[in-house]
Amino acid sequence: HELLMALVQHPDSPSACRLMGRLQAQLGNFHAASEWTERYLSFCPTDSLALTLLTSTLEKSGQLEQSTEVFKRAEASATTFHDFFEISVEADRQGVAEIALRTIDKAISLIAGKIHINAGQAYLQQARILQSIGKSSDAASIYRELIRKNLVSAQAWFALLDLKTERLSAPEYKALVRALEQATTAQNRALIGFALGKAHEDAANFSAAVATFKRANDDAARINSWNAQAFAKHAAHVLEAFVPTQFVSQKNS
Asked: Which residues in the chain show pLDDT less than 70?
């Protein structure tokens, strides 16, 4: 209500237009979100984060060509690590790998040789994109370097084994076992546990794999509870939405 009042009193307020664009995006009103964000950008045309939001709302409303063009504007306007990182994440989500990789490379170049709180996530993002375009060995090298430096190592172990093309050396196998023993959070235990389970499976140590996967699933359940009834209800609603009415009627008769 306060935001609407602000827009009534100050219809040309850039900050109010931007907030309304974000709010509409959160509500799933992507056409409206695009309109409000474009209105904000008429005042601030080089705000790369607003441009990144616009690429998202355009893509979600089916305007794919427009989204790609806005990515170019966002990249040209970006100046900071955060700008380039956010563009890369959104481009990766939309499957625009060339822009996603180029912008994460630019983000990393800005923090080269520096200690940065998000360095690990940036390298994970770079490796994930490389993996998506078929450069799995390059991705594996980055994951191994993250493990060596103890940067987001739980995610790196999981991603390395999730490649399904990498076999661990004996020292790596021991390091992974040790990493699980030393993990202190349920999330890290789950990620490392799934990685170790895959390593056990690759080594044909199937009983250990089953036991490790079970413990990892138990840890994962502590983080994200799963409601079977709610999932079944959701699946039924999806079927009702997409299966022809005549077929549903015949099935229920």
From this structure: 1-10, 244-253
